[in-house]
Amino acid sequence: MIKAFIFDVFGTCVDWRTSVAREVAAVLPQVDALAFADAWRAEYDPAMARVREGNRGYIALDDLHLENLKTVAARFGVVAPDNLNAAWERLDPWSDVTSGLSRLKQKAIIAPCSNGSIALMTRLARYAGLPSDCILGAEIARDYKPKPAVYLAACAALRLDPSEVMMVAAHNGDLHAARATGLKTGFIPRPTEYGPAQTTDLSADADWDVIAHDFNDLADKV
Amino acid sequence: MIKAFIFDVFGTCVDWRTSVAREVAAVLPQVDALAFADAWRAEYDPAMARVREGNRGYIALDDLHLENLKTVAARFGVVAPDNLNAAWERLDPWSDVTSGLSRLKQKAIIAPCSNGSIALMTRLARYAGLPSDCILGAEIARDYKPKPAVYLAACAALRLDPSEVMMVAAHNGDLHAARATGLKTGFIPRPTEYGPAQTTDLSADADWDVIAHDFNDLADKV
Questions:
Q1: Which residues on chain B are in Cβ contact (under 8 Å) with A117?
Q2: Could you say which of A118, A125, A133 has the minimum Cβ distance to residue B126?
Q3: H/E run at residue B111
Q4: Looking at the structure, do residues A128 and A172 belong to the same domain, yes or no?
Q5: Which end of chain B has less Cβ packing within 10 Å, N or C?
Q6: ipTM score here?
């Protein structure tokens, strides 16, 4: 019996690529906005890796995003305004997310378990209309997924055993880490998260507890 | 310009006294349920004081409530089932709360800043229909109000300056502490929180930034 659904956000709930590109295009018309969005996102995991590996203390994703923005802007030969960093608070949801999460919320507790900070998830949820009961994720654990501490901190914050909690994500790697810490797992593919030429996470690569085509299908199946 | 409203919950949003008494009456029909609820609540502040004063590490309010339940049950000469502790997750809201908070949510970020844990606030919000954008409070700070750290941790989690955040409470002491850390303050009286003979917090005892008669009146005034 699942008592809480926790879910990834970037990619799983929201289309960060076209949304960030839209924001980039509005303030940096001279650059290839999709290429800029891809380059910015490509710095995401290496930046978190430095925290995960203990090479720097926990620092919120908002701050990592701003550091990465400066790095990428310099590479593109432009100076980006700091407030472009708020692009990550204005990401459009995939069309099934608001209805599907609303249905899951009728069944159990729902909460994002993202690498985004509480501030970032709060503002993004207001922009995108993402329902939730509370915000879990990296800031609660002061570490980044896929470190086990993040999934375990989410369960601990809800005072639930990991076996009572399902992690939902569009990324097999996220689910492998969640399963390794004892959580249930739900997979939803987002085959255009990285654009039309995406080659990764096109389908489930393990026997996840639920494999659905979107959040509404997941709500039907649980 | 207020960018977030954070609010107290026990007493300010929900009528803990009659709700806890109802839960007590259901499982301990032999005791005076209101007297039991009052006695249980009377152990609340002393239990948190031991954490605030550094005499024990942070422990979630759920656990303090359970310790206090055993203490009070022994005093009443009964053995209380552990699951009576979940009474604190089933507290009825005052009649203005759901509509008033919904209106505030249209204006700015809203979040509980309670001494309740994330788990307790999550379940209580689902029971009572309390809207919010995220859950802040004691667990984020790992300390208890009215320690300054709790208000400051709430502002930090939202990446806002304290001057951009209004603390709303039915307790003057909560607001004195919030003001001392730089937050704006909003007072709502709850003159029957402690029953018909209540003598404290019947009115504002300072020039709070907003003094309203309920959450809807507060939404009108900000």
A1: 157, 159
A2: A133
A3: strand B109-114
A4: yes
A5: N
A6: 0.96
Is there a single domain that holds both residue A101 and residue A198?
yes
Q: Which of B63, B118, B130, B132 to mutate to test the interface with A (most CBs of A within 10 A)?
A: B118
Distance CA B104, CA B106 (A): 5
Residue B68 and residue B119 in one domain: no
Owning domain of residue B190: 4-15+91-221
Distance CA B76, CA B31 (A): 7
Domain boundary among B60, B89, B118: B89
- Average pLDDT, integer, range B65-79: 98
Q: Rounded to an integer, what distance in angstroms lies between the CA atom of residue B133 and that of residue B63? A: 25
Q: Identify the residue among B83, B109, B122, B136 best suited for mutation to test binding to A, counting A beta carbons within 10 A and taking the highest.
A: B122
Contact A134 B135 (CB under 8 A): yes
Written as six digits, the tokens of B67 are 């310790």
Alpha helices by DSSP H, chain B: 16-27, 33-42, 44-52, 61-75, 97-107, 118-128, 138-141, 148-157, 172-180, 215-221
Residue B149: give its domain's CATH number: 3.40.50.1000
Structure confidence by residue, pLDDT tens digits, B104-157: 999 999 999 999 999 999 999 999 999 999 999 999 999 999 999 999 999 999
